[in-house]
Amino acid sequence: MFLEQTYTIDQLITRCKANERKAHELLYKQFASKMMGVCLRYATDRMEAEDMLQNGFVKVFQKLDDYRGDGSFEGWVRRIMVHSSIEYYRKHHKMMQLVELDDAAGQTSANPLATSKLAANELLALIQQLSPGYRMVFNLYAIEGYSHKEISEIMGITEGASKSQLSRARSVLKEQVLKLEGKSYGYAG
């Protein structure tokens, strides 16, 4: 019976920096499934998410010397995946539809009770259906925890555009959740 040796993250990082192929593979296996979840939130489909994941890991391996050990390594990898996914999207999708909404501050978020009844994959599917600009801002703000100022810098938009995109994304998601909940309970929607 073959048993694979286990390494700590620090040992894997050191071995990856020494360009050991097996260490690259182990590090990839350690984080690929979690990071695929990150990429799926930014992609339009699974194939695109897989491309984002591969590009992200190329950057992770290229930038390993930049990791200083401040904070978790997983958080560092996640940040690279988010930036890599946005960069990929910009490269492969010429324009993101950005809309300024005058009444952005008046919008409310989706009903938490309704979303709690959805499976994670159903919610992911709804997020993937958002327009590109809405999806990017929603993910960065609601899931990754970036501020509107940080989002404006990452995406090259104004803070107001970030706020309005988030507001509109929430509104669209709320409508979709209510439609989905109505169908599951047999209500006409």
List key phrases describing it:
9 helices, 189 residues, Rna Polymerase Sigma Factor, Chain: A, 2 domains, 68% helix, Arc Repressor Mutant, subunit A, globular, mainly alpha
What would your notes on this structure say?
By secondary structure, the protein is mainly α. It has two domains: 9-92, Rna Polymerase Sigma Factor, Chain: A (Orthogonal Bundle), CATH 1.10.1740; 104-184, Orthogonal Bundle (Arc Repressor Mutant, subunit A), CATH 1.10.10. It has nine helices and no strands. The chain is globular, with a radius of gyration of 19 Å.
- Going by CATH, the architecture of the largest domain would be Orthogonal Bundle
Which fold name corresponds to the CATH topology of the largest domain? Rna Polymerase Sigma Factor, Chain: A
How many domains? The number is 2
Overall geometry comes to globular
Per CATH, the class of the largest domain reads: Mainly Alpha
> For the report, how would you describe the main beta sheet?
none
Q: Approximately how much helix is present in the residues?
A: 55-70%
What is the β-strand count? 0
Estimate the mean pLDDT confidence. Answer: 82
- Gyration radius over CA: 19 Å
Helix-strand pattern: HHHHHHHHH
Structural class: mainly alpha
Summed up, the helix count is 9
Kindly report how far apart the N and C termini lie. 57 Å
Supply the CATH superfamily name of the largest domain.
Answer: RNA polymerase sigma factor, region 2, helix turn helix motif
Strand portion, in percent?
Answer: under 5%
Low-confidence stretches at least 5 residues in length (pLDDT < 50)?
Answer: 95-116
